[in-house]
Backbone:
């Protein structure tokens, strides 16, 4: 089974151009299933049937796995068995008979404009790290970037005079995203006053945002920055890098932005993914009605 997995992951890497994070998720999900099979003394994929799969997904549910994570497991394992079937390693794909876990519709946490302002105003821009952090927060909110897109930004991706930045999203898909005047202002200040003090001539390469070692940030490094300033600003909501992305999209739609334009800016391949923000917008309108209507 491990040999099949290694072969499958190689195909994913070479043919589907998936991000490293997605490849890692596939690997971890399928490995978990293989370990489950090993405990049942199963090493032949052709033996796997819907009964075994149902038992595995029941274990995941009993372990407290969210419906979103369970759906990802289903997708990973289904892809793996589809590959085995297409290459005649097995006669049928048992996952095709198994319905994917139902996703519970849970709307993401969104900051209101006042909360965003409080967080953006928190860094001490008189020091090099504060100026860097200010620029990070401004770009996250101005452009709605994924954290992976932020940490991989290169100086050559910044077209600040044209008010756009180049972003490489999932599957290395390239897109141009508008950047507002406030984010441009603070990014320019960071590049001229702070980044030169953080730069390591050998290790920094062309990366925009540098950590204390002068190298690229980790995802966790950005999360810690956001967590620190959110708490400093007195925000009681759970705030993480993706919260800025959710807030970016929601505020655009609240302001009347076209859904297709927001889809393009976010880099969503399917507009149905973007439509979640129309639900958030409706909930916001209902809340305003409840709060301010005299008979709400």
Residues:
């Amino acid at each position: 089974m491990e040999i099949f997995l290694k072969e499958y992951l190689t195909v994913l890497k070479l043919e589907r151009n998936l991000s490293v994070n997605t490849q890692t998720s596939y690997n971890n999900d399928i490995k978990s299933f293989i370990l489950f099979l090993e405990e049942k003394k199963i090493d032949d994929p052709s033996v796997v049937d819907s009964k075994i799969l149902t038992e595995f997904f029941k274990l995941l549910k009993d372990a407290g796995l969210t419906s979103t994570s369970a759906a990802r497991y289903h997708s990973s394992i289904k892809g793996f068995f589809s590959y085995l079937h297409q290459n005649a390693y097995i006669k049928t794909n048992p996952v095709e008979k198994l319905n994917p876990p139902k996703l519970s519709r849970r709307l993401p946490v969104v900051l209101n404009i006042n909360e965003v302002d409080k967080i953006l105003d928190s860094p001490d821009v008189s020091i090099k790290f504060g100026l860097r952090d200010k620029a990070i927060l401004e770009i996250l909110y101005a452009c709605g970037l994924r954290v992976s897109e932020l940490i991989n930004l290169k100086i050559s991706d910044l077209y600040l005079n044209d008010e756009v930045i180049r972003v490489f999203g999932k599957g290395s898909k390239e897109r141009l995203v508008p950047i507002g005047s406030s984010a441009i202002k603070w990014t320019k200040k960071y590049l001229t006053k702070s980044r030169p003090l953080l730069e390591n001539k050998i290790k920094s390469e062309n990366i925009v945002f540098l950590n204390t070692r002068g190298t690229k940030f980790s995802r966790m490094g950005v999360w810690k920055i956001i967590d620190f300033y959110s708490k400093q600003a007195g925000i009681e909501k759970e705030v993480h890098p993706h919260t800025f992305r959710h807030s970016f999209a929601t505020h655009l739609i609240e302001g009347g932005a076209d859904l297709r334009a927001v889809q393009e800016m976010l880099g969503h391949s399917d507009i149905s993914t973007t439509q979640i923000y129309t639900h958030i917008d409706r909930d916001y309108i209902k809340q305003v009605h409840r709060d301010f209507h005299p008979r709400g």
In short: The CA atoms of residues 209 and 216 lie 7 Å apart. The two ends are 60 Å apart (CA to CA). The domain at 113-292 is CATH 1.10.443.10 (hpI Integrase; Chain A). Residues 20-39 form the longest helix (20 residues).
